[in-house]
Structure to design on (86 residues):
């Protein structure tokens, strides 16, 4: 069984590997209050503050597909753990 807690450094490392030019996302997650959290389908990092501009798709061999929803302001709205939806 997987650890019930998820560590945000896994996502930071995935961004470094798969989206190395996205320093903005790395910095945001590094400063986030959500360094460890209970696993869930979607983690809201900030309340609804506008339209999602882009979704960054990351792949992990164990965790599966992880999607970062980024607002027009550049802030990360939330993190979706696609493989936990089913």
């Amino acid at each position: 069984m997987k650890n019930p807690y998820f560590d945000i450094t896994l996502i930071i490392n995935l961004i470094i590997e798969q989206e190395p030019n996205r320093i903005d996302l790395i910095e945001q997650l590094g400063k986030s209050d959500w360094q460890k959290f209970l696993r869930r389908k979607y983690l809201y990092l900030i309340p609804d503050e506008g339209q999602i501009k882009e979704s960054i798709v990351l792949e992990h061999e164990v965790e599966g597909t992880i999607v970062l929803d980024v607002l027009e302001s550049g802030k990360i709205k939330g993190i979706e753990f696609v493989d936990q939806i089913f």
Residues 59 and 65 are 5 Å apart (CA to CA).
